[in-house]
Each structure stands twice: as structure tokens, then as C-alpha cells.
Write a structure and sequence with these properties.
about 325 residues, TIM Barrel, eight-stranded parallel barrel, about 10% strand
Amino acid sequence: MAKNLLEQLRDVTVVVADTGDIQAIETFKPHDATTNPSLITAAAQMPQYQGIVDDTLKGARETLGADASAAQVVSLAFERLAVSFGRKILEVIPGRVSTEVDARLSYDTDATIAMGRELIKMYEAQGVSRERVLIKIASTWEGIQAAAVLEKEGIHCNLTLLFGIHQAIACAENGITLISPFVGRILDWYKKDTGRDSYAPAEDPGVISVTEIYNYYKKFGYKTEVMGASFRNIGEITELAGSDLLTIAPSLLAELQATEGDLPRKLDPETAANMTIDKIVVDKETFDRMHVENRMANDKLEEGIKGFTAALE
């Protein structure tokens, strides 16, 4: 019996669910799962999860006391809610869950370190090993430096809102566990900037960006894993078959599952190892210069931080 596209994808790539919806995760049985403030916000509004929300709010109020403001209670509750959903998700997957640091801390290295430690402390208090958690941090220079400190403490990180090769190289050189380059958001920017309605999958700017990062990592032997994220269509996903991981929304997982056909591997470490690629050393000065020169990465990083901030608020 022929395999569908999702089954074939699992043969060459670790499939990750990009959702906070535990029922969707149970349906598609991914290895890992990723969450962010927008996904947690959406899941928290579903009737089946109201018990988790109510218990978390009640616990935050009891911790802070009767004199705490509503804003203080909600702030603590949101951190705990992300961990509560993460713990529930870990009950139904064999791998790791990604939980995001407050996006408002994206340019504050010390505060990001502190919150990363606090999130891990919350997980460990609930009996979850830090090996099963990835702390998600925006790929600012400050965020990457914070992640480097956390990695040395055995706290593994997922650097998100990643749009350019300069961000990817800085992450790899700082020993980050995993990066999440945003395929669909790159496509969105180019469609708006060029006025084009669509791109063929192989010409998709987001696909090209992730392919460049993957090949660079494999060429130079970096251990940092590449996890394509933020997909707009299954064509983007199939063009990245062979990536270390791909995090995919439930709607696209369903489409892959319902689609039959051949799925050739597009990314391969042996092929990348034989490519001619120039090595780039990315210090802060180089990072800042490359970031300014890359209008798309500059725009989408700021937009992403603002979007996650809005979801939190």
C-alpha cells in the first residue's frame, strides 16, 4: 500500500506539531511539539482546556496573594499556562516541547536568561526533565547570547523568528541546540515586496533560505538542528524534505496525510558536505551589518516580536 506524503516525510525528517491543541497532537502523533504565545492563546480559548486555564489563574492568585494586581496575576499565570500546556503535551509525545520566553525580553540578555531558568525550574517542579524542553528565544543578537549561556547550563534552546543566514550562523557558533527559520513569513514579505501572487515551491524565498542554512550547517559540521517553521502550503514542506525537523500546523499535517504521491528527499547532508560554500565568521559587528542589509530579516524580526508581544498582552 502506497504511503501518503506525511508517512514518507517521517522517513527523512522529524515531524513536529506546531500547535498548543493537545487533541490535534494526539491525532497526528508527532515526535516533538512547538508552542508560542499565539498558539497558547488560541488553545486557552478552547472550551476543552478551560479547566487548565482556571486552575492556573487560581494558582497564580494564591501564590501572589490578595494584594496583587490583575496584571501581575495574569503575567504569572501566562508563564505557568505555557508550562501547563507543555507538560500536558509531553504526556502524549515521545520527544520535546518548545516553550517561549516573553517576547518583550527579546533585547534583554539578562532578563531572557532569568526567564529561561525560571521556565525550566517550573517544568522540573512538575517532574519534567530539562532534556525534554526547548526554551524558545527570538533570534536577536541579545537573545542568541542569552541562549549561549543557558546552553552551557544544560538548558536547551530553540532560536525562533529566524530569517537570515547571519542569525543562523551566530546560533551555530554559539552552540544552540535548534533553530526555527520561518519559511512562510519570508514568503509573505517577498510577495508583498515584489507584488507577486505566488512562487513555485522550488523558487519560494523561504524554501531557498532554509536550504541555504541547512547546507551551510552540514558543510561545516555544525551540530545545531534546523527546523523549518511557519509554512503556508505543503509545497514548501515537500521542498524541505530531509531537513532535520519540520514543525507543521495541524491543517497542513492533515493535508499531507490526505495526499498520495512520491516524496523525494531534497536536503541531504552528504550532498551539502561536497558543496563549495564560503565560511562566514559572525561577530556582533558583522551580525548588525548583515541584519541592516537584509531588509526582509530586519522587518520580519521586528514584526514577529511585536506580534508575539501582542498575543501575550
